[in-house]
Every structure is written in C-alpha cells, then in structure tokens.
Amino acid sequence: MDLFTRIRENAGPLGKYADVAEGYYIFPKLEGEIANRMVFNGKEVVIWSINNYLGLANHPEVRKVDAESAAKYGMAYPMGSRMMSGNTDMHGQLEKELASFVNKPASLLVNFGYQGIFSAIDALLSRKDVVVYDSGCHACIVDGVRMHLGQRFVFDHNDMASLQKNLQRAKQITEKTGGGILVISEGVFGMRGEQGDLKGIVALKDKYNFRLLVDDAHGFGTLGATGAGAGEEQGVQDEIDIYFSTFAKSMAGIGAFFAGEADIMQYLKYNVRSQIFAKSLPMPFVEGGLQRLQLLKENPQFKDKLWEIATALQEGLKARGFNLGNTTSCVTPVILDGSVPEATQLVTDLRDNHGIFCSIVVYPVIPRGMILLRLIPTAVHTLQDVEVTLEAFTSVAEKLRLGAYRADQIAAKIA
Asked: Where are the domains of the chain?
C-alpha cells in the first residue's frame, strides 16, 4: 500500500472528525486580548480554556518588557544554537534565577516543554537503564519513554503498590545490567488536576535506589508556599532529582527549564539534542521570562486570587452535585456521562447559548461513555464569571440528564 493511501483512509482518532469539528470543537479560533472573556464565533464568552494561571499574559509590565526587548533585539537574536553561537549572559541569568526559585543548585533553559523533556529522557537513559512512569503522564513523557532502548514499565496512576511492583521488576533487571532506574511522575496531572503522589514516591527511594524526574508544568507558580510547585506543596522538593516546568502555564510565555544538581544540568546542557540542534531561545522570550519570574516572586496576591477563583468554582460545582474527580489543584475537571454526539450538543449549547467556553475531552482520549469538560481558572477571572458558569453548567447537566442532547451524529459546527 502507498504510504499516503493509508493516511488518507485513516485520518486518526481526532482527524476523522475534522470536516465537522475543525474551527469549532477542534482548533477553535479565539479573538481579542487574552482575558477572562474573549470572542468566539462572533460572540463574547467566558474563557476557561487558557493556561494563563496568574494573569501575566497581558500584565502591563510584561507587555512593556516584551515590546522593548523585541524592539531592541528583534526576534532573531541570538542567532544559531546556544552551543554554537546563541549564548548570552541573560540566558545564564534566567537559569540562575529559576534554579534559586525552585530551590535547586542549577537549571537549564530549553526552548519548549514538549521537545525539552522528550529529548532529556532520551539523554538521561542508556540501554542498561530502566524507566518507570505513571500511566497518567503527558504525551511528551510517553513519547520520550518510547525512544528508550532499554526496559520501560508503567505503573497505575498514583498507585504506590503498582509502583513498588514495577520497581521490583526494574531492580531485578538493573542488578543484571548494572544500569540505574528513573521514575517519572507529574507534579499535577493536567487533564484531571490530581497532584502526583510525590511524597509516596520519594518514600520508596532508599529501598529501590532510583532517581526521580517530575514534570511540574501545572504546579509551578500555583502550588507551594512560594509557588515553587507540587514538591514544595508536599514537602519533598529536595527529593526531586530533576525538576521540570514550562513557561506556557503560570509564566504565560514560551520556554521551559530543568533544575537539579549542577553536574547533571551540565550533562543535559551538552547532551539534550533538541537544544543542541535547535536555535537558541530568542532574547525577547528570555528577558520576558525574567520579568515574568520577578512578578511571580514579588506578587503572591496573584496566586491568592487564582485560588480564590478556583475554590469558588470547585466548591460551587461540588455543591451542585458535579463530579470533579480527585483534583487537588486549580485544574477543574467536570466529569459527566454521555456519548461523543451528546458531548458536542452540550458544548454547543454552552458556547452559543450560555457564553461559556471550556475544553471538551471525549473518547478515545478518555473512556467511552464519559464526557470531561476541563476548566482552567485564572487570576483574571471574577466571581461573576464563576456564578454565570455555575448557572450554565446546572442548566446543561439537567438537559443531558433528561436526554435533550441525544443524537446519532456530532452537532454541526455553527458557521
């Protein structure tokens, strides 16, 4: 069979919906400045689908630094990979400040979260090593693990008994190969909002002699007394061997970083292929990152406001009987029973009749018969936004219960 023939016959689990879903359910277009309310399909909607946790995306000081840096340097400087010709003092300064903030000796700046952690997993592991990772890990981790040429095991989500079972298997292998064990979890699992059981994981380190890598994209800036993340929140930051986060959430920017022991960061600096063979992070993103980090550190009220909104939203939904799963973070999943067509009918009603925009997740991403609506509260939302959202969810849940959304086909997108 010709390669393209196969592709044309099977567009993939999401691509098969492109004709009816693109532009509305998938790849929707939001207009206006990043805020609690934006324009979708010609109408103002309350936006619960943007990871602007601390409201920094349009903070005046952030926009000022972004604009001034772009005017001064353009978007190309420094040109070339950081190893060859793209290094600056500002890149190093951002690394020092990030390391200090998450209480680690050193850090390494990378251009993007997905490519960064994907490539770092490859760099950290040899054929002799075994990787053990949580079944709920993000696609960037799963894809990185797939590149590993040695053994890999997945443990049931946040299940310490399952982790121990797999660590025992890993230890039997490494005792023969002479390799090491890497355990990977997330600080916050971004789809359902549960914190990784980091405390439970680190309690097993002495017995099984492994290193721990934590992807804390959703915990950085939102959890812990200072905002240093899930490790700080659970009192085990010192036990995280390699800490990772992206700027795309609380920092509302572009870039990511690793933090840990200086020699390990040095090793990654010279071996993470997605950085060695990629252009250096442009200066506006570096200077913008420094400004965002400063605002994050100096304004704890941003995190306080975020949690005021998150608490009001989550408690309000629970009081109205909604199932939020096991979230222990700001991420707010609303779990309903229904088919894919019902999910689209419900979301169309939410967006077009109630002015509420949130992300929709259905089979095959989650089990068949389940609808997951994910809401991301931010510091720029208001209690009024929460109230109108609670009323809207109450309305659509009742319609779902009564069968008003029953259909055989996905709801047609509204032009």
From this structure: 3-53+300-402, 60-298
Cα separation of 140 and 118, whole Å?
Answer: 6
CA-closest candidate to residue 138, choices 234, 256, 217, 197: 217
CA–CA dist 268, 117 (Å, integer): 11
pLDDT of residue 414: 60
Six token digits for residue 112: 């993007």
Q: Are 105 and 258 contacting, i.e. CB atoms less than 8 angstroms apart?
A: no
Q: Write the single-letter amino acid at 51.
A: N
What is the per-residue pLDDT across 376-406, written as a single tens digit (0 to 9) for each? 999 999 999 999 999 999 999 999 999 999 9
Q: Which CATH class is domain 60-298?
A: alpha beta
**Tokens found for residue 385:** 């936004």
Terminal Cα-to-Cα distance of the chain (whole angstroms): 37
Q: Is 296 helix (H, G, I), strand (E, B) or coil?
A: helix
Report DSSP state, residue 361.
E
What's the CATH number of domain 3-53+300-402, 3.40.50.2300, 3.10.20.30, 3.90.1150.10, 3.10.180.10?
Answer: 3.90.1150.10
Helices and strands, number each (H, E), in the chain: 16, 14
Q: Are 30 and 357 in contact (CB under 8 A)?
A: yes
- Per-residue pLDDT at 5: 94
State residue 322's pLDDT score: 97
Among the listed residues 94, 85, 89, 410, the one whose alpha carbon sits nearest the alpha carbon of residue 254: 94
233 burial type by CB count under 10 A (0-12 exposed, 13-18 middle, 19+ buried):
buried
Cβ-based neighbours of 313, under 8 Å, separated by 6 or more = 332, 375, 377, 386, 389, 390
Tally Cβ neighbours within 10 Å of residue 391.
13
